[in-house]
Amino acid sequence: MKDAEDGMAELGILGPAVLVHGVYERLTGMATTNEKLVEPDAAGEPDERTLGQRRADIALDLLLTGAPAGHDTDDGLLAAIVPQVSITVPVTTLIGAEGADTPPAELDGRAPIDPDTARRLAGAASGWDRVLTDPITGAMLAVDRYRPTAAMRRHLKARDQRCRFPGCGMPARNSDLDHTLDAALGGATEEDNLEDLCRRHHILKHHTPWHVEQHSGGLLEWTSPLGRTYIDRPPPQNTITFTDGSGINPASGPDAGSGRAVAADRGAHPPGGLPKSARPPDPWAALPADLLAPF
Length: 295
Hints:
By secondary structure, the chain is α+β, with helices and mostly antiparallel strands. The protein has helices at residues 17-37, 51-65, 91-94, 115-124, 150-160, 199-207, and strands spanning 2-3, 9-10, 87-88, 105-107, 111-113, 129-133, 140-145, 176-179, 194-197, 211-214, 220-223, 229-232, 240-242, 248-250.
């Protein structure tokens, strides 16, 4: 395989003559039949591809979507393999800016591709990675994605347990994952910038004067339209903890003492707990006292 000009590439096959000629004749027959079957598009424009162009398009379709009948397993292991490519598209190119200075899209590590192909691929992609670069040097600064990963979702559902608007009890499994600082305003797709909100409070956050900031440890500081501040902490986990004096005690979560089964890594620390010098810092200690006052 070798790259060519104008976003094209060439793929060659060397094999037994009888097979290669058979492949060529079959592709030619498919292309000829296709030319008779294809009708003008919705705008009335005829399909003006040449026989060679049709032959190439059909060959690519077969290679990308076909199953190797003589080599595959009974359960279709080879046919299930999906091709993947990565492209990088400058945002100005993606939104349709045209001009001599508009940078091209690139097939990563290979060659430039035309903007229309890049937009079609971007529109069909399940998610995009946002690459942030230095405006002067062009050096990459960070990479993130608008859609949280599966690992992030599991972590946040376990942390939040419910909608994080003060007083709301909608389970996290029925809530939306929301960027505390909007992604459109530069908010990163990170665990310390995401929280679970039910649909009602998700809409309230974006379309009313309510405002929210997220602090360390998942603590949310909500400010009402009247300027009053409310603090929402992640619910305590229903687990067991180690204490300095009496070994293990049930946590003070909503299900403590209910007889519900709990689990913990009993071999991680001795019954006396961690020494004070080795304990993680308290995430609430850095917040002002007035923010921690009960509301």
